[in-house]
Amino acid sequence: MAAAAAAAAVGGPQPPQPELPAPGLALDKAATAAHLKAALSRPDNRAGAEELQALLERVLSAERPLTAAADGEEAAVAGGGGGPGAAEEEALEWCKCLLAGGGGYDEFCAAVRAYDPAALCGLVWTANFVAYRCRTCGISPCMSLCAECFHQGDHTGHDFNMFRSQAGGACDCGDSNVMRESGFCKRHQIKSSSNIPCVPKDLLMMSEFVLPRFIFCLIQYLREGYNEPADVPSEKDLNKVLQLLEPQISFLEDLTKMGGAMRSVLTQVLTNQQNYKDLTSGLGENACAKKSHEKYLIALKSSGLTYPEDKLVYGIQEPSAGTSTLAAQGFAGATGTLGQLDSSDEEDQDGSQGLGKRKRVKLSSSTKDQSIMDVLKHKSFLEELLFWTIKYEFPQKMVTFLLNMLPDQEYKVAFTKTFVQHYAFIMKTLKKSHESDTMSNRIVHISVQLFSNEELARQVTEECQLLDIMVTVLLYMMESCLIKSELQDEENSLHVVVNCGEALLKNNTYWPLVSDFINILSHQSVAKRFLEDHGLLVTWMNFVSFFQGMNLNKRELNEHVEFESQTYYAAFAAELEACAQPMWGLLSHCKVRETQEYTRNVVRYCLEALQDWFDAINFVDEPAPNQVTFHLPLHRYYAMFLSKAVKCQELDLDSVLPDQEMLMKLMIHPLQIQASLAEIHSNMWVRNGLQIKGQAMTYVQSHFCNSMIDPDIYLLQVCASRLDPDYFISSVFERFKVVDLLTMASQHQNTVLDAEHERSMLEGALTFLVILLSLRLHLGMSDDEILRAEMVAQLCMNDRTHSSLLDLIPENPNPKSGIIPGSYSFESVLSAVADFKAPVFEPGGSMQQGMYTPKAEVWDQEFDPVMVILRTVYRRDVQSAMDRYTAFLKQSGKFPGNPWPPYKKRTPLHPSYKGLMRLLHCKTLHIVLFTLLYKILMDHQNLSEHVLCMVLYLIELGLENSAEEESDEEASVCGPERCHDSWFPGSNLVSNMRHFINYVRVRVPETAPEVKRDSLASTSSDSLSSLQSSRRPKVLQRENSGTAQVFSLVAERRKKFQEIINRSSSEANQVVRPKTSSKWSAPGSAPQLTTAILEIKESILSLLIKLHHKLSGKQNSYYPPWLDDIEILIQPEIPKYNHGDGITAIERILLKAALQSRMNKRIIEEICRKVTPPVPPKKITAAEKKTLDKEERRQKARERQQKLLAEFASRQKSFMETAMDVDSPENDIPMEITTAEPQVSEAVYDCVICGQSGPSSEDRPTGLVVLLQASSVLGQCRDNIEPKKLPITEEEQIYPWDTCAAVHDVRLSLLQRYFKDSSCLLAVSIGWEGGVYVQTCGHTLHIDCHKSYMESLRNDQVLQGFSVDKGEFTCPLCRQFANSVLPCYPGSNVESNLWQRPSNKSIQDLIKEVEELQGRPGAFPVSISSETNLSKEMESVMKDIKNTTQKKYRDYSKTPGSPDNDFLFMYSVARTNLELELIHRGGNLCSGGASTAGKRSCLNQLFHVLALHMRLYSIDSEYNPWRKLTQLVEEVNSQQGNEEQQPEVPILYHDVTSLLLIQILMMPQPLRKDHFTCIVKVLFTLLYTQALVALSVKCNEEDRSAWKHTGALKKNTCDAEKSYEVLLSFVISELSKGKLYHEEGTQECAMVSPIAWSPESMEKYLQDFCLPFLRITSLLQHHLFGEDLPSCQEEEEFSILSSCLGLLPTFYQTEHPFISASCLDWPVPAFDIISQWCFEINSFTERHAEQGKALLIQESRWKLPHLLQLPENYNTIFQYYHRKTCSVCTKVPKDPAVCLVCGTFVCLKGLCCKQQSYCECVLHSQNCGAGTGIFLLINASVIIIIRGHRFCLWGSVYLDAHGEEDRDLRRGKPLYICKERYKVLEQQWISHTFDHINKRWGPHYNGL
Q1: Rounded to the nearest 5°, which phi and psi values hold at 1792?
Q2: How far is the C-alpha of 700 from the C-alpha of 864, rounded, in Å?
Q3: Is 1519 helix (H, G, I), strand (E, B) or coil?
Q4: Which of 133, 669, 1085, 1514 is buried most, with the most CB atoms less than 10 Å from its CB?
Q5: In 624-708, which residue ranges form alpha helices assigned H by DSSP?
């Protein structure tokens, strides 16, 4: 129907419709829409259709402001709706009305949604969205779920993780192609299509008419907006167009969200070809349409695309033709024409570089290649929309719209085909794009949705040649950056490689393409098509060969390179991504026998490509010297497919191997890499800079090794198993350049190596041979065995976390390969080989992660040094593994000394590779081993223990793998006599071991000792160990008879090579001859060499036995064990030989040799029987001795230095630990501040800067290093036991009204409302918030020394973690952070001892004395009033203390700057420090004096400073509270007299602890003990009265009257003043006179405590009320007088403390049960003073009963401060907070954080919340913690600490199941709270030790 309507619409020019007024007028859109809908519903709806078309034409053309000038008349018709924006909105309104057909648009949307058969979620998201991936449920590795679907599904116990989307994605819930149905969420489980009713026809009828026009309008817009200038249009223009189109595209996006019904209409519209043709062909008379069509054609052309008018041959996808285009064009893929090679020059853009000669694979008809790259024909809206989406570089909105449509199946197929059709164009655009990163992400965002679906991928592969297109496009991309290869033969090379410096490779621009390719190859059906298609394979190998030999390194021989290029990153990434990953993808489909054919195909074309490559680089037999490339992807393809063929497909290896000559060529380059690795590690490439080391490391690194070094070694193993062993071994030593070293002579000349590199190159060569012969990764190990071996190797190097293990175990890079990390096998192997060490905390505060460490039996049986060497990126890791092994052996008592790497039994070889073991049984290797053993025995230079170790390892390997038992042992006895031609009689190591070699002819330099001895003709030559044989005629004659053996590796190798070449082809001979390298000079050509003959007379066995003697340093140390215990030969596995050093190894080898042949056994016994003459002293010339000594001395010096360094480091570490330790008693730093010997007259201090000791004096005061910091920890105490939880829902909020700080604040403001300000400021303490805490490390320094130290810090340019200008520094001794110096008060300690003697004065006398002392203003030492250094320092430190906290925490007075304020601040500082120390001790003093806080306390000094300043403000004696406490005041009426003046605070409202501090600080220092006790006694009476009053208020009327009565009866007993019952009844009767108890009507229920009061509970209440005061007082006494605190049980704390304070007379202590009232000691008659105090209260409650009562009830029992309690699982925090909006700007913050002290939600670094240049976290840290903030960063799971102007990352308190942090949630595994860590954090917060424990601080510049 739609088509008919559309046809009608185009029928011809429309007659104007008079009945429609101009749309611009206020006409009723709804009515029009309804009318049209009705018209269209009629059976004959032509008129309606035409009418609608006309309307749309008008409305939608008005929507084109961009072209308003061009078609002015149309714009005029639209009636100028007031600027372009209005017109557009108008048009959108029209569309909405029309769609709804007259109804409301919202109702329409709801109606359509009701018909949504959504079985798929399909939610599309953009970058940074948090999504989930479940590997258990995923079929495709790219599967992802939105958070909602994930949480609604059941994934318990699955392997899932949360991730932040990089490129965007879509939710796959409900799509069974991508994930298993078990993982669907509740919403998408039901196949709902069945029960959804059919869509009524008329509901969407209008949409079918309106939408084509709307989309066409959008396309016209896009055409208009795209101006194709000469260069690429600027970003700005494109963005402008897109902004204008924003509402239209959003409208479409909203339509897609209406569900399935609307989507299917949209699909119809987008894919209908007829509609498209009618509207866009540009044939009508409409000028505008014509113009727009022209623009479209121009755009096509400028993109290098042609628009094939009617030439449908080119059509990439012709739906009508059922066959594929290839067939239509007349060549089926199989005919072979597809892969013709034609050397075409005309298409080469880079002809300038002479690349034309290169053979290039062309798909046979150039038209096809062209058509893929250059032809596009659009047949539907969808196709042109995608075209413009690409042109505009994938705007996010368009991408989202196109993806939102995907749940519609029909659309999905059409869109995928369209995408494939545009594929080449997409990649072209990408290559040119400036924003290639963003664009890549958007492309992959789309392609991943399409290609992950196997069914879809298969369909497009079959119908649209997806594979051809992809490979062609890949080739096209890489062809643009090819350069000539310089490998091998620079002049004549025809090979081209990619240039790694090009942007394409450097920026990884090709990754979207490669990732799509890997994605489709993971589908079996697609991969099979690829492997069957010979043409494709040829093209692909051609593509891979572009990477063969890229990034060539040439060794710098003269000077260091000027510029180190970093292109190697690009090269390694390119090989891994573009070559290796597709290879792994293909390999994963070659797992069974049926796939043999595929492997044969790949191998065949791979070998062809390799042959072409050898030809192209002109390679014959010798690699060019001094160059290496690490990139040989063709070799690796070949190797990996071979390995797969043998391992999984049971193919016969020989059937896929080439001839010998090819094998020889194949092994050269991989071998060259192995030799270069050794050269790089020997520092021979040091002039090439660090990057070459980087390459060597990357080559073996875990992500690359199984695509790089493993295939290389495997290929070498294959070559070795098939080539002649002598040839192979000699090639190895020649490649490693150590041939000249392998001589019996003590000196030699090496033409190709410097002497200093010889040793490490020899080690390299031997190590390589050991790896080659013992590695079994591809030679017969199963996958699980490989996994286990890899894991053991990694764990032996170091303990590892779970995630680093996952990262280090080389996984098969293709995700569908089966062994994925985290899979079942990984976990089970891990638990078999390793033990988990739970995360621990070191005292230094550094936090460990959970680690895995190898089990003991793994060290014992599985430690494999070979595997470790293969897998180490850094050489130090090998050493680390050996050290750990040594430690294990020592600890388990298996071996005490320094062990050698253990020999490990290997997995049996796969039969196909048996030939590899021939290497161990070839004469060449035996000669090398013999020579090396001899040289080691004779102490020739350049040989190390490592060489001996490897030699023995090889011998042992040979014995383990000896091919056949010797057949006829006896017959070979006459061997030595028979054999004259060669060194050894046969090739079996077992028999060659016993073969004696008598003479050897060697070539030596003329300077060698062997030559100098010639003149001494008389030397005897029969001694076994004689090194030089004198040249008597007899010897010369021997030489001529050919008995002395000469051996030249090179000659042997040449001979072998020659034989093979001759065999294979005669003409190759001519090529080879001239190339015989000039490096190896022919024998005799160097004049300075001369020939000598050595008499040796040794066999390998005799050398081994002598080495045993040498190593053990004892004569005849070897005694064959079987002579004592014949059993040993029967069961040879003896554990004592498993671990040990060289001696053990030799014993083990000799035992094995004896086991293998009786002959060897006999010979060993014979050698041992000959009593060996003493090993001669080394015969070394003086010069040689010198060099050797030097070497040895250097070695020893190095070892000494290492030892010293290690010792120093451990010392430093132990010191740091003790110095920084917060919780351990300090033993090593004595502090002689408070406890000095009585006979010393003055306290002596050590200055840690100048090192002098002495007292602190007025002129040169000493100070304590202190850190002052503002603290609000006290304010965070709460009175309830339940700790507050962090809010994780909207309902849970935390209100701070019940914190200690809030309660104190309320109290102070209440007092200030009703009483005199100055009096209020003495009645309370401040400092609960922002109080100043002073702490010290206990070290002292002279204040003048400190000043010069600060000066030097100021001039020091080094970046410090602190700010010197703010007075910050670190203690010069222990490096603890500090910011001030607290002067020590000069004074003798003897004095204080005198003060402490108890006096017998009565309490009344003492009270008088106290009053007098307080009244004397100048009572402190006279000198201080004059300015001395000390007083200056005291003032400056006071200033520091004040400046530590913010003004708002200091000023509470109503009159700013009043002295009362300072007074209050100063005694509150003392209060803060005492309270905090109490909290550090756990809130009580039960633990006694053992607490650490006292050890380093500076309270004594602090008191002096405070007292000094307090005494400057004398309190008017009139107002001194002391008098109210100790005297009865007469004039009662005076207070009522002056009403206008506010009264003073009643004494019962005073805070007793504050009074105590005021009294003591007002006294001259040092204080006398009896005065102190007197003050405490007096204050205790007040405190006790307060407790009674509070108790009386707490209980109800009945209780009160009962107590009043019982107490009154006892009033006249003797100790009535010390009975709480009496006192309580008196208090009640006194207060009853006022109104305190009256106003109870309503409040009564609130106040009454439900418990019935018993005497016990009352006693407990009174004790609890008084305890806080007693604790603080005891602490104060401890600091002032240095008395120890007794420890006690909790229940007896009150009595112990009160007796310690002298409140409790001694005889009371025995009494049980204890009564608190017995501590009372009234200075004046109790009843009188109480009634006086109560009178003050009564007079206040007359007016304010309510407040009066509130002030009486003080809550004194605060619980310890805690951080908020966190939920068990991190996800609960994350899900709530990461989407929570900021309260200021209502956006979701980029870095949300939450305060762990109070639960406030803040934006980290958020600019929206910035106030006067302070960001929110910094501001909050000042308001909540007075400068200390503890924030949990939601998106990173880390805790950040802000302390003042610095911050640090503290770490995380959430760990995963393996005890690891997951910073930044990179791994996305579930995280659980680690309670221990959280405790540590809380402990550091409470003890204020963040500054000392955390080391990495940086300034935050208020930006957090």
Answers
A1: -75, 150
A2: 17
A3: coil
A4: 669
A5: 633-647, 660-681, 690-700
| Cα dihedral: 461, 467, 469, 474 (round 10) | 150
What are the respective helix, strand and coil percentages of the chain, to the nearest 5? 55, 5, 40
pTM above 0.90, yes or no: no
Question: What are the distances in angstroms from CA 209 to CA 116, 261, 1790?
Answer: 21, 15, 44
Task: Locate 917 and state its tokens.
Answer: 């073991």
Determine contact, residues 1445/1472, Cβ cutoff 8 Å: no
- Cis preceding linkage at 1713, omega within 30: yes
**Torsion over CA of 484, 486, 487 and 489, rounded to 10 degrees?**
100
CB contact at 8 A, 312 and 85: no
CA pseudo-torsion sign 1479, 1485, 1487, 1493: positive
DSSP 1286: P
How far apart (Å, rounded) are the C-alpha atoms in residues 181 and 189?
A: 7
C-alpha torsion sign, points 13, 19, 22, 24? negative
* Tokens 């409470």 -> residue: 1886
Find the helix or strand (DSSP H, E) in which 1381 lies. strand 1380-1383
Cross-strand bridge partners of residue 1011: none
Q: Are 856 and 795 in contact (CB under 8 A)?
A: no
One-letter amino acid identity for 540? W
- The whole-angstrom separation of Cα 1175 and Cα 1169 is 16
Provide the residue type at 1428 as one letter.
T
How long a stretch of residues is the chain? 1904
Weakest mean pLDDT among 467-481, 569-583, 1020-1034, 1824-1838: 1020-1034
The C-alpha atoms of residue 1774 and residue 1121 are separated, in whole angstroms, by 69
DSSP character at residue 1715: -
Residue 619 sits at φ, ψ, to 5 deg, of -95, 130
pLDDT band at 270 (very low <50, low <70, confident <90, very high): confident
Distance linking the first and last C-alpha atoms of the chain: 63
Query: To the nearest whole percent, how much of the chain has pLDDT over 90?
Result: 24
Which string of DSSP letters, residue by residue, matches 138-206? BSSTT--EEHHHHHHS--TT--EEEEE-SS-EE--TT-TTTB-GGG--STTTS-GGGGSPPPPTTTTHH
| Spatial separation of the C-alpha atoms in residues 1574 and 1563, rounded to whole Å | 13
Which residues, 6 or more positions from 1836, have their beta carbon under 8 angstroms from its beta carbon? 1863, 1864, 1865
Q: Round to whole Å and give the CA distance between 27 and 55.
A: 13
- Compute the distance between CA of residue 499 and CA of residue 480 in angstroms, rounded to an integer: 10
Half-sphere CA count of 1505, side-chain side, radius 13 A: 27
The pair of structure tokens assigned to 1711 is 């009494």
Output the DSSP codes for 831-880. HHHEEEE---B-TT-PBPPPEEEE-HHIIIII--HHHHHHH-SSHHHHHH
Cα–Cα distance measured from residue 1647 to residue 1655, given in angstroms and rounded to the nearest whole number = 20
Residues 370, 402 contacting (CB under 8 angstroms): no
How deeply is 25 buried, as exposed, middle or buried, from its count of CB atoms within 10 A (0-12, 13-18, 19+)? exposed
Q: Among 339-348, 1316-1325, 1711-1720, 1878-1887, which stretch is predicted with the lowest mean pLDDT?
A: 339-348
**What integer best gives the mean pLDDT of the chain?**
78
The kind and range of the H/E element at 8 are helix 2-10
User: In this structure, how many other beta carbons lie within 10 angstroms of the beta carbon of residue 1070?
Assistant: 8
Cis (ω within 30 of 0) for the bond into 1566? yes
In degrees rounded to 5, what are phi and psi of residue 1847? -145, 160
